[in-house]
């Protein structure tokens, strides 16, 4: 379908726009000048343009996806809970604040909530570790790191004792040692 130009009530739109993200599905109702409803679509905000001088809203592009085709869209990540590692002095580092997902338009989540309560010092949470709603997949490698608990310098980390470590075995003499003989 070709693009359609619409006129929005800026005040009403700005009330909504403050509380949504690019992954928020919108019920876009298009009416004529007399208020008669012409059609209604599930839509997403594709792009917003502002005036460079006044920072005033100038233009909004909406994307109306096909209902039965998976779409790819960036969805914000929301960290839930307090990690065990943070309580021990670690630093929670979010590597990806949003992730690309593939889903049918009516299944796109507004946000992906990730529970970090079980993450300890030095732990990482990867794409494969995220519980997703049915019909939603993250379009990244399963081993990509989303969140990690960084151990700050100087923080003592408990380690389990291992066997006594022996000196490494010299396999080949170095050049200087051979020349000295």
TrEMBL record:
A Gene Ontology biological process term: translation
Region annotation Disordered: where it falls in the sequence: 158-181
GO MF, any single term: 5S rRNA binding
SUPFAM superfamilies: Ribosomal protein L25-like
Domain called Large ribosomal subunit protein bL25 beta: residue spans: 70-153
Composition-biased stretches (Low complexity): 158-168
Biased composition (Basic and acidic residues): 169-181
Keywords: Ribonucleoprotein, Ribosomal protein, RNA-binding, rRNA-binding
Keyword RNA-binding on entry: yes
Residue ranges constituting the Large ribosomal subunit protein bL25 L25 domain according to the UniProt record: 2-62
One GO location term (cellular component): cytosolic large ribosomal subunit
Any Pfam family: Ribosomal_L25p
PANTHER family, per the entry: RIBOSOMAL PROTEIN L25/GLN-TRNA SYNTHETASE, ANTI-CODON-BINDING DOMAIN-CONTAINING PROTEIN (PTHR33284), RIBOSOMAL PROTEIN L25_GLN-TRNA SYNTHETASE, ANTI-CODON-BINDING DOMAIN-CONTAINING PROTEIN (PTHR33284:SF1)
Entry protein name: 50S ribosomal protein L25
Organism placement in taxonomy: Bacteria, Thermotogati, Thermotogota, Thermotogae, Thermotogales
